[in-house]
Each structure stands twice: as structure tokens, then as C-alpha cells.
Write a structure and sequence with these properties.
The chain is α+β, with helices and mostly antiparallel strands. It is 54% helix and 18% strand. Strands 1-2-3 form a 3-stranded antiparallel β-sheet. α1 runs antiparallel to α2. The longest helix is centred in the last third of the chain and has 31 residues. It is rod-shaped and about 70 Å long. The model has no long low-confidence stretch (mean pLDDT 90).
Length: 101
């Protein structure tokens, strides 16, 4: 394979990865816990966009249950956007496992 062709393909893949990363940052995933009592929306850049808590979920005598529901919903939402990101990057890399992407 000629070196110029390899360099063009590498540049093309880099451009596609940059586009994919911009798209991934816009992904959102919603997850809930406690039968919908807590809902969390996460973005593809692994940030929490919003948290909604049904007032019925607030029991001042059992705050740890609410904390557990928030954590579970947040972890599920983050896991979901990570899976979406992996799927999108797999399209760009052709399934290659490139560290850091």
C-alpha cells in the first residue's frame, strides 16, 4: 500500500472521528429508577443534563433509598450514552478497538 494513500485514509478517518465525536456529544439517554420515581437524562459527553424526582419519592426517613434511585438512574443513563457512543465510533473505525475513542 502506498504511503500517500495510507495518509489520506488516516486523515479521512480522523475527520470522520471528529464528526462522530461532535454527534456523540449531542446524544441523550434517559433512564429511570424506582418505577419512574427518579429520571435522569445524560448526554453523550458524559454529563448529566437533568434529574427529575417525583415528590412521592422523597421520604425524609429513608433518604438513602432516594440516593440509591438517583445513582441507579444516573448510571443507567451514562451506560446508555456510552453504548450509543461505542456504536457510533464502531461505524467510523470499522470495529477496530482504538484506545481513547
Amino acid at each position: 500500500m502506498d504511503m500517500r494513500k495510507m495518509m489520506r485514509e488516516a486523515q479521512k478517518m480522523q475527520q470522520e472521528m471528529e464528526i462522530a465525536q461532535e454527534e456523540i456529544a449531542q446524544f441523550t439517554a434517559e433512564a429511570s429508577a424506582g418505577g419512574g420515581m427518579v429520571k435522569v437524562v445524560a448526554r453523550g459527553n458524559i454529563t448529566i443534563d437533568s434529574i427529575s424526582i417525583n415528590p412521592e419519592a422523597i421520604d425524609l426517613e429513608d433518604i438513602s433509598m432516594l440516593e440509591d434511585m438517583i445513582m441507579a438512574a444516573a448510571n443507567d443513563a451514562i451506560r446508555s450514552v456510552a453504548e450509543l457512543a461505542d456504536q457510533r465510533m464502531s461505524v467510523v473505525t470499522g470495529g477496530l478497538n482504538i484506545p481513547g475513542f
